[in-house]
Amino acid sequence: MSSFHITWDWLNCSTTATPSVTALYLSGYDPSGSLPDFSSVDALVTIDMHNNSLNGPIPDFLGTLPKLKTL
Predict the structure, then answer these.
(1) Of 26, 35, 54, 56, which residue is the least packed, with the fewest Cβ within 10 Å?
(2) How far apart are CA 44 and CA 71, in angstroms?
(3) Looking at the chain, which runs of residues are DSSP E strands?
(4) CA–CA distance, 44 with 65 (Å, rounded to integer)
(5) What is the pTM of this model?
(6) pLDDT in single tens digits along all 71 residues of the chain
(7) Which residues contact 1 (CB under 8 A, 6 or more apart)?
(8) CA gap 5, 49 in Å, rounded
(9) Considering Cα of 20, then 23, then 25, then 26, what sign does the dihedral take?
């Protein structure tokens, strides 16, 4: 069985048998507009969105992410 590893500076994933996205590091990428609904990414522990051009209300789904510790 072969495997490969892809690394992105803005994304961390778990190394479990079924990998999950655990962190989004969006600072420095200047995201703009409203925050999309990523409530299905329920393994998120960290979301870093400082220094951005996002606008609109803070989405309710951020309060429902069960493992989120740092926003």
Answers:
(1) 56
(2) 10
(3) 11-13, 21-25, 32-33, 46-48, 53-54
(4) 7
(5) 0.78
(6) 444 455 678 888 888 888 899 999 988 888 888 888 989 999 999 999 888 888 989 899 999 999 999 99
(7) none
(8) 25
(9) positive
